[in-house]
Amino acid sequence: MGSYNTSEFRKGLKVQIEGDPFIMIECQFVKPGKGQALYKCKLRNLLKNTVLDRTWKSGDSIESADISEIQAQYLYRQGDIFYFMCNESYEQYEIPSVTVDDAWKYLKEGMVCDIMLYNNNPIGITPPNHVVLEVVQADPAVRGNTATNVTKPCKVETGAEITVPNFVEAGEKIRIDTRTGDYIERVKE
Questions:
Q1: Is 125 exposed, middle or buried (0-12, 13-18, 19+ CB in 10 A)?
Q2: Which residue, 33, 49, 54, 61, is the most exposed by fewest CB within 10 angstroms?
Q3: Which ranges constitute the DSSP H helices of the chain?
Q4: 104 - beta bridge partners?
Q5: Per-residue pLDDT of the chain (189 residues; tens, 9 = 90+)
Q6: Maximum CA pair distance of the chain?
Q7: How far is it, in rounded angstroms, from Cα 181 to Cα 107?
Q8: b/e string for 65-74 if b means 16 or more Cβ within 10 A?
Q9: C-alpha dist (Å) from residue 60 to 3, 21, 39, 125, 170
């Protein structure tokens, strides 16, 4: 297992502290008037999703985490378990809904997602940035309600509720940003 020197610290670095994997979400270099330079970092635990503040002196080092990312195809869901298959090794992964978190809202069978592995166990999934889903249920637009930015909730084929503009109707396909959950546009096919 490798290690990182403080000069290599940056946002997005995956490290291991006290046996748990963390990702650096912030890193500030601080040079006080006298004394040694400091690196003030915010880290998020990839297993528990908690945030930790740590400060290192210049020249310190930290252990790197054994984290890799693979591309895997979403196969199906059975109860609270989601099944994925690695595109290269054809190995299947069973991922509990707790790990999938809110990404279930955008998962369609056959979709390719990024899966983060820690010691070869899945700890998180990332769907594509934009997905196209069909609207299965939406209230009809109210005639005369043409004020700007009028929105309504709708249900998409995955079962998730998305807020869309008033003109979107059931049966249409819409593009959604999976990072924010926001409607982007209608998709014509």
A1: buried
A2: 33
A3: 97-100
A4: none
A5: 688 888 888 888 889 888 888 888 899 988 888 888 899 999 988 888 888 999 988 888 889 888 888 999 999 999 999 999 998 888 999 998 888 888 888 999 999 999 998 888 888 888 999 999 999 988 877 666 555 678 888 999 988 898 888 888 888 999 999 888 888 998 886
A6: 69
A7: 13
A8: bebeebebbb
A9: 10, 18, 10, 32, 57
Q: Is 170 helix (H, G, I), strand (E, B) or coil?
A: coil
The length of the chain, given as a count of residues: 189
Which tokens go with 131? 């997905």
Q: Which two tokens stand for residue 79?
A: 């109860």
Reading the block at residue 176, the tokens are 């959604």
- What is the identity of the amino acid at 126? T
